[in-house]
Amino acid sequence: MKQDTTQARVRKVDAVDRRILTVLQRDASITLAELAKQVHLSQTPCWKRIQRLEADGVITGRVALVSPEKIGLGLTVFVSIETGDHSKEWLDAFARSISAMPEVMDVYRMAGDVDYMLRVVVADMGAYDTFYKKLIETVPLKNVTSRFAMERIKSSTAYPVPGPSETRAGVRASA
């Protein structure tokens, strides 16, 4: 779970790469022939671009998206964690522990009054109670606050692919 704290190298993507990324984020099972047609390339150059995007770490994997409710995971919990220990040793132990818990879908180190934010998906309140007990036994924690989602209104795995006129902050550059 631990990520490199250095600035990730940002790869320059052109308009064709952006079209490829947009289509693949919508449907990674699309055939190469259909993808090439949609992005206005022949198949070989399209495949080479995909391979380069993968080699450069822009495309990090291809997955099937699963409805958690359809497989019995009906409760999403957002867990805020505050810690009194900000040492490297504590963080390493926390990252190892949390990474081994399959219920934890996302972990973010935060700025502000909360140190870490987790998105946890479990079957029900009983399963969350079991998870919670396991969590508080892993490493010393100052405060744990749980917020239970009542309804998912929007969920997306597709990132907006910024164009060349947009800055890294997502704001359009002045013309």
TrEMBL record:
Pfam families: AsnC_trans_reg, HTH_24. Keywords: DNA-binding, Transcription, Transcription regulation. The keyword Nucleus does not apply. Residues 13-74 form the HTH asnC-type domain. CDD domains: HTH_ARSR. This is Lrp/AsnC family transcriptional regulator. It comes from Rhodoplanes azumiensis.
